[in-house]
Amino acid sequence: MLYYPVLLDIKDKLVVVIGGGEVALRKVADLCRAGARVRVIAPRVHEGIASRAADGAVSINTREYAEGDLEGAALVFSCTNDALVNARVYREAHERGIFINAVDDPPHCSFIVPSFTQRGDFLLAVSTSGASPAMAARLRRMIEKAVPENVEVILEALREARRIIQGDASFKKLSADERGDIMKRIVNDDALLDELAAAFREHTLSHYLRIRAGLPPVS
Fold it and tell me: For 129, left (φ over 0), alpha (ψ -120 to 50), or beta?
């Protein structure tokens, strides 16, 4: 099956998780990091979920799933090992037009979750379209080895560099292609990326970019 890859902004959105075991715990942790409002529905919940509820990050309904529980949800995760429950949750989600992921139950999924890792703004996601989650995880680990250790700082520096190049009056004297070439040269050269990150840490990024662009330094 072919899927369309997308990154979702779920900050302050309601996400319902059916089930309270270790799989649900991992989903809840990821959803909380993304800023979602998480509601867990399960007769029993993992102590890790209970601790998040005590902190106010998660709400818990300690009971079995019932029709109507998905009202107002932006996304649904069914983390049970009960195909009948998954089917009921899927049916309600489908009727309400809500995307649902039933863990290890592809017939009751309208989306799947890739193997991913996140460090600051850096997010690496790999999927085999459900063919082999284990292989997706292996490929992700292989690719991750090529990622710079300081990728978080590099991305912060690149974000600020773009802001400077797009907003500083001095850089507006350059053509759009020339401004774009500055960034392309930097991101395609490991040494320049390290210089950029160092300039960012030392609060001399604007000066560094002017040098790279061939502009006179600010007196």
Answer: left
Report how far residue 73's alpha carbon sits from residue 38's, in angstroms, rounded to the nearest whole number. 9
Q: How far is CA 180 from the centre of its chain?
A: 26
The residue type found at 44 is: R
Domain 14-113 grouped into CATH 3.40.640.10 = no
Rounded percentage of the chain residues whose pLDDT exceeds 90: 92
> How do residues 31-85 score in pLDDT, each as one tens digit?
999 999 999 999 999 999 999 998 888 999 999 999 999 999 999 999 999 999 9
Q: pLDDT tens for residues 99-122?
A: 999 999 999 999 999 999 999 999
Is residue 41 within 8 A of residue 51, CB to CB? The reply is: no
Predicted confidence (pLDDT) at residue 194 exceeds the cutoff of 90: yes
Q: Which residues contact 114 (CB under 8 A, 6 or more apart)?
A: 5, 125, 126, 127, 136
Q: Which of 119, 125, 182, 177 is nearest to 153 (CA)?
A: 119
State the Cα–Cα distance between residues 94 and 84, nearest whole angstrom: 15
